[in-house]
Queue: 2 jobs
Job 1
Amino acid sequence: MVGGAQDSIEAFAPDLPEFWLGDPHAAFRRLRREDPLPWYAGTGGAWCVLKHADILAISRDPQRFTSTRGVQLGLGDPNARPAGIPPTILEMDPPVHNLHRKLVIRAFTPGAAAQLETTVRQIARECLEAVEPDAVTDLVEALAVPLPMYVIAEMLGVPRSDRPQFKRWSDAMIEAGGGGRSAATDAAVGELLGYFAAVLGERRRAPKDDLVSTLARAEIEGARLSDPEILIFCATLLAAGNETTRNLISGGSLLLARNPDQRRRLLEQPARLPNAVEEMLRWWTPVNSFIRTAVRDTELRGRRIAEGDVMLLLYPSANRDEEIWGGDADRFDVCRDHARQRHLAFGFGEHLCLGAPLARLEARVLFEELLARYPRFDVAGEPELLHSRLMHGVERLPVLFRG
Ligand code: HEM
């Protein structure tokens, strides 16, 4: 429950999955109008940042709003973790952050992503070939899960035979992040780190052209990364790239099925697909929030923010902010002009999503192949939404694949 004028927004509880399963945008719309920076007392308390301009201001100012005290609501301070577990790249500030980001940036530029197009298309086609036409199939299981998982596994140099385990491990990491930490998820994350430790040992003996080998020989100011640093980096790439892209694909498919006029436009003009993917990112927004922490007393939108206060960056709200997107911000429109406005689905500033070019490529190629083969695919049952406060996704999407 929020205080003051916001008491009227009784259902506002962004730390609870149930809030996200309802219609969070009704609350966001009203709060943006009435009180766009409310204090929310749940889960340790946080300022809820609803306006596009405020998320930009915070994200571009790591000297005032740090990532080093954690980036996910309720997960606590990374500095309080047991010794030997280093922070992830998301939990660093400049200049240290930049030194780490530079180690892998070459594998994630738009040019590097473009080189993966043939591989991505091949995986997308294999997934679609395995689908039985005119039978009800879960699109998440058939397309949205395997594509990003196989692509990131390919980049990390993981053999195909080991890939089935990856879904379980990656899910466990996301579940732990979404507030669902348990002995089982901890054990799965432990298995994942153990697995990468073995791969790392192999790559040290016989380097290959993959990310684990890149990290094995990487140096920062003349010093090699420690094993725990490398393992956390690998696990972060796996978790960050997997479920996010999965939810873009499943959410985007649902949007196309529910908006036949928009789908028709794409069938008539497939060249609009890159723009349609931007609109899917804006409208669906696979990541609900990340946090920053104020490092000193400061002010924002006339509010006094105290040192140590948490700022909850609500990307889905910024992506419907009328001030940026106009009066029809709630409409899904594949022709919306994304050249002038920037959605915040990939964040902003220092930590702007490293995998954005890759995620864009995967979604575009997948939808090109899906629409070419099954232009009339249709939802054939109630979609099951993901129960998470961190991610906006579809757990199960029954679809009839029709040509
Ligand atoms: C639709 C898909 C994706 C979405 C919506 C998404 C979203 C985001 C967001 C919002 C951030 C900002 C975090 C912050 O400011 O604290 C981020 C960072 C990051 N993402 Fe993504 N992501 C996606 C796909 C990927 C992929 C495919 C990869 C890699 C394979 C990836 C790797 C990363 C990494 C490593 C960071 C941290 C960058 C840094 O701290 O410098 N993401 N992502």
Job 2
Amino acid sequence: MPTPHEIAHLTLRQRCTSLGIPTLSFDASGAIEPTLPASLADRIVSTPPFVEPLVAISSSWAGQPAPELVEVFTGCYAAPIPVEERRKRLGYSVGLAFGPSMLARPEFFEACRAAGVDHQQAYAALSASATHTRASAEQLRSFLRWMVMDVAQSADHTDAADVLTTELAASYEQLDAVYDIGRAIGDLTHPPRFVASACKRLRAALSFDFVMARFADDPAVPPALRGVTILDGRSPIRHDDDNEEIAARSLGLLMRLRPQREWTIFEPGTDSPLTPASQTLAQPLIRDGRVVGALIAGDKSGRDPAISSHDTQLIHASGGFVNAFLENSALYLEQKQLFLGTIQAVTAAIDAKDHYTRGHSERVSHLAELLARAVGLSERDIEWARISGLVHDVGKIGVPEAVLTKPGLLTDEEFRAIRLHPEIGHRILRTVLPLAPALPGVLSHHERYDGRGYPNGLRGEEIPLLARIIGLADTFDAMSSNRSYRSAMTRDKVLAEITRCAGSQFDPKLAPLFVAMDFSGFDALIAKHATDAPTYQAAA
Ligand SMILES: [Fe+2]
């Protein structure tokens, strides 16, 4: 891109050419700058007879705000016009005005010869414009001076407008990134996903080769992010892509941050723990007055590799959102634990109505979680299997205790009362909106694969997968524990029974996965609930 000086000189040259005035260009020190001759007159004045006397005096222009008109030799006037940008002198454009006597001077003959121009032809071409006197040449100088100032000023303005436009576009992009990150903090279900997308968005808005988030192994950090490093972009370790090394170096950087809300810039060299070759920008993430993580950006590329105030502002604003996200996550986990704790207490109280079913819901919950994992469900669905297992028998609250605990055979009416519990449970929990994904397991856990179950006689895959999982876990626990009407069956017998009933009572694909599970956690729960007995008996 031409500088304002070049633009001013080109414009002046164009206009002078159209007026028959040749020009020369000098740099700030007074040395001549080569330019392509635009006219016959330009070629003539670019020769030593004109250039040498001008070069001899041009170094004196540097100290003058407006260098004066010079008569180079008789009838040859030179008007040096300074070109400046923000008060800095960049050089001079020199316009040459000729009087009639110049055309008779030996210097003119000599110049024509040096330029390889026929003297007669040059005389004919220039005589019409060689009419200047000192006074008119002085007027020309003033005219050229104002023109160059106008052109340079307008080029300055265009330059400033370009810079402003670029900065505005960058600011918009950065504002958009902060807005995107802010909008995403509402989704607390998957913290690593939020942090990864924040790093990606930041990197897209800035010119860093990498943006990463590093979290300490600290209880104030959501479990899914504890001790975690999330990197977007190129590895900061240029010749070594070792994740452990990146994790160790970023932890070293984390240890050096102070619990203030401002960013830190690590300068290249030994001071920079991650990338010794370039600056690293780190925004600490604070919880309870401690540094629990950092957003880190480094290896800036592009036109300006130095970290700018745009970079620091954006990473600071994004750090604010990640901090808010950490706080919200902690609250969310606290509420979730409270919610699950309440459910656990309620279901334990229901199980305790019959001391034979003590701990049943917790064990079914544990088995449902194991089976959901064996099936390969997502972490979210595994959690719903766990919750559904916990609440699957909540409807027993509506079944008389005398029926639940009756030893021996039940009458038809008592049997009907018991078989109502899935629908009662479903009706109760339907009003608890956040539990909606657990409801299929509550309503349909007594359906059978062959369609002979209740309450709706669903068959095969009509039965929701969650209900098929809970059904298996429920039956396994019932067979494995003592009941009022029979003693517990041995493990081998229970597993054989499940295998035998695959395809009739149970989903034939789930049954083999179930019998292959590790039951040590289940046995630990049986032992725990046996020792809990006195408490529950007292409550019942
Ligand atoms: Fe049940």
